[in-house]
C-alpha cells in the first residue's frame, strides 16, 4: 500500500474509534465528528467512516434538517470535488481547513482525469481568482506528497505538469458497475491476446516439426544413396565404359590412331611401320600432310643434310 494512503488511514482511525465507542448517537454529535474528521490536516480518505451505522443514520427522515447535509458533505469529501460542493444545495458551510482540504482533494481528481492542466482551467474549477493562490495550493499538494508536479507559469498558456497522483480518493459506489464493466472488457481483450499468442506458438511448433521431418527424410535418402556407392562398383560407376574412339591413346578409326599426338608413347609405334614401310613412306606422309616436322634452319629434303634428317626421323619411336 502507498505510504501516503497508509498515513491517511492512520489519521482517520481516531475518528472511527470515537464513532464506534461513544454511546451518544445524536445527529449533532455525528455532525461534529464529520466536521472534525474533514478538518484534520492528514485525513484524505473517509470510506470507513461513511460505513458506520451511526453516520448512515443521518440519512433518516427523522434527522433534523440542519444535520441532514453532513452525510452528503462527507460523501463529497470522499469522492466528490469542489464543483460538486458548489452545485449541491443545503450543505453546511466550510471552515478554512475544510476549504483547503476539499480543494486539495479536487486537485487530485482533476490531475488524474485531465491533461494538460492549465492555470485558467484549475482556477475556474477551484474558484480561485489569483494565479499566486493557485500556485500556493499546488505547492502545498506537492509538499504533502499528494501529487508530483512542476509549475510552468512562463508557458503559453501557463500549465501545471503533473507526473503522478497519490491514490487517496475513495471510489463512488455508483461507479462500481462501470468499473466492473471496464475491467471485464479488459480481461476479455487480454484473453483474446493470449489465445492469439498460443495459436501462433502452436503454428510455429507445427512448421518446425514439418521442417525437421523433411530434413530427416532428405538425410535418410542421402545416406541410402551414399551406401550404394560401395568399393566394388565405385570404380565402374566413376570411370564408365571406355569408348574405342576415346582420346586416351587407343587404336581405332580410319587413320589408325585416335587421340592427342602429344600423348604418344614409343610402344604405340612398335608395329613395324617404320621398318616395313617403303623407303619413301616418310616423304609421302609429309608431302600428303603438307607439314614440316622438326626441320632446322637450312635443312632440305633433297640435300644430304635433309636425307640424314629423314633417316633419323625414320627411327623415331624405334625401341632398341
Automatic annotation (TrEMBL):
Residues 1-165 form the PCI domain. It holds the Pfam family PCI. It comes from the Eukaryota. GO terms for cellular component: COP9 signalosome. SMART domains: PINT. Belongs to the CSN7/EIF3M family. CSN7 subfamily. PROSITE patterns: PCI (PS50250). Keywords: Signalosome. This is PCI domain-containing protein. It comes from Aspergillus avenaceus.
